[in-house]
Specification:
- By secondary structure, this protein is mainly alpha-helical.
- Helices cover about 75% and strands about 5% of the residues.
- It starts with 11 loop residues before the first helix and ends in a 6-residue tail after the last helix.
């Protein structure tokens, strides 16, 4: 039977039903859009209120009088002043000495930067191992049973729900200050984050290779090894490199609570209001992340074979 594509080819009663159904679906779509927009606006207003977005503050005017103003426009000039204070004084005639003055602690910062990168590397390695091993029982299509699925998923949720700073505070209390606390904190959080990403990749694989391995007498581990891992390997590499970049930034922050890396220097510079030191540290972190991102992209392209393409 040939399908009717033009509503004008339908009988009158069919056309009426078509128009009625179309109008009903259009009204339903408009109602859903209206309800969604209303819920979004209500949540936005509640969040803005809880976040003091509409808060007013008292400011001192140039003539010495005081006035009440909305905190957002009142605080923007202070943000501008903070940024201006962070900009170092660089002159072309004395550029070398100005840069030397700007990065006056470069030897200390270089050592701490290497420590930061090593913390991120070790934490990423721990996160990859833990996340990779738990991603298979945490995937609905690969888990041996529902209890293993539930347990592995809850563990990954707890690991990634607690922020790195909180884990760092716990491990600093347990193992004292130093890089070890940072490695454990970031590694545990990375396990939860990577385990979720890996498990979602596992749930999108083609199950036919696994069925073939099973039909040939392979165990569950054989199915994972020969049927699942070859399919997910490119995504695993991509997520791992992305996580390493994230961990570099995280490792530069958790030092704020004594977990090693550049974080302690950030804390000292902010406490003493050494604005140019802060900008120098920002530049160091920015350049480091940019280089890591470029190297990660090259490595990922080499693994998936994109470099061979024109």
């Amino acid at each position: 039977m040939t399908a009717v594509t033009d509503p004008t080819d339908l009988p009158d009663n069919a056309i009426s039903r078509f128009e009625s159904d179309f109008a009903a679906k259009r009204r339903s779509a408009r109602l859903n859009w209206l309800m969604g927009s209303t819920i979004f606006l209500v949540l936005f207003m509640i969040t803005a209120w809880l976040g003091d977005f509409f808060k007013v503050t008292q400011v001192t005017l140039p003539d010495g009088s005081r006035d009440w103003r909305w905190i957002i426009p009142a605080g923007i000039p202070r943000l501008g002043d903070y940024v201006v204070n962070m900009i170092p004084s660089l002159r072309w005639e004395t550029l070398g000495s100005d840069l030397a003055e700007w990065f006056w602690r470069w030897r200390v910062w270089l050592v701490l930067l290497i420590e930061t990168i090593l913390i991120a590397f070790m934490a990423t390695a721990l996160g990859v191992v833990g996340g990779f091993l738990l991603s298979f029982p945490a995937a609905r299509n690969l888990s041996p049973n529902k209890w293993v699925l539930w347990t592995s998923r809850r563990y990954l949720e707890i690991a990634r729900t607690v922020p790195e700073l909180v884990w760092a505070l716990i491990f600093v209390f347990c193992f004292s200050v130093g890089p070890m606390a940072g490695v454990l904190a970031i590694g545990l959080h990375a396990t939860g984050a990577l385990g979720k990403l890996y498990s979602e990749v596992n749930e999108n694989i083609d199950m036919r290779p696994l069925d073939g391995v099973k039909a040939a007498g392979g165990t569950w581990f054989d199915q994972i090894r020969y049927g699942a891992v070859p399919q997910i390997l490119p995504n695993i590499i991509s997520y791992t490199l992305l996580r390493f970049e994230i961990n570099v930034r995280a490792s530069s922050i958790i030092g704020y609570v004594g977990a090693g890396g550049l974080g302690q220097e950030f804390r000292t510079a902010m406490s003493l209001q050494e604005y140019t030191d802060l900008s120098a540290l920002f530049v160091i972190i920015f350049v480091t992340v940019m280089v890591i991102d470029y190297g990660s992209e090259k490595l990922r392209h080499r693994v998936i074979g994109m470099e061979a393409q024109p």
